[in-house]
Amino acid sequence: MPKSKIANLLSQLETVLIGKPDQIQLAVACILAKGHLLIEDLPGMGKTSLSHGLATCLGMSFQRIQFTSDMLPADILGVSIFDQQQQAFTFHKGPVFNQMLVADEINRASPKTQSALLEAMAERQITLDGNTYALPAPFFVIATQNPVDQSGTFPLPESQLDRFMMRISIGYPNETAELAMLKGQSNPSAVLSQCLSPDELIELQQLVPQVSASDAVLKYLLALVNYSREQQVGTGLSPRASIALLQASKAWALMNHRQYLVPEDIQAVFTAVAEHRIQSASALQGRSISESILTNVNPIR
Question: Which fold has domain 2-206?
Fold first, then answer.
């Protein structure tokens, strides 16, 4: 079941985002590893199409929020309203109470509003007015953001960035893919069919921790992390990043029909997991540092 279901999911998503198989595979790996995904790119690159396609194919309840500078935390989490008949406050759930939350242009909201998602992303729950509310399972946040040099944007705080397991960039399509889009060969998410139920997704997520990792592979992962901490530019990867890298690598191995980890799995997801955590002057610099780490650290055989 895992092999056929995952293959069907990938093939359907490739009809939405033509010519971008690597980005699609990273997004699916992020979901299987129970992570949250940040997509950063220029407007019109297909960020929202990929998000909607994932929600449709996975059969998840989802809601899209357009982040703006005047948005408040209550617009995301919900609000307690006094009920005259019951003479008590009643909590009205916000959009976060969906299995998938698409936070569109998240960096157009203020840091205060962005921080409303911290507890939800880390603990799958929110706390309001002294009450704790569990979020539905599975719970997944896809956030899109425009480059920080665009007008009207706020940089994401480090604590918020660290909650995202991966950050990917879609980029311009190649000529063949764009020609196919112009001919109408890409499917809008509305015509996609459901590939997995939420319960089947949870079953797949439970298979990820069962992927085995030898000591040699774990030492290679730690060598990459330690090398990032020795760099003179940027901030090294934290222990939370090490765990995220391991989870994402195991998900990649599962997608490639293996029950064991190899160095190539770590290399495939390393840049997406590491670049936004290596604090530097720009996303491009973070990506360059991540790629140099992969080049300079050899697998331990």
Answer: Rossmann fold (3.40.50)
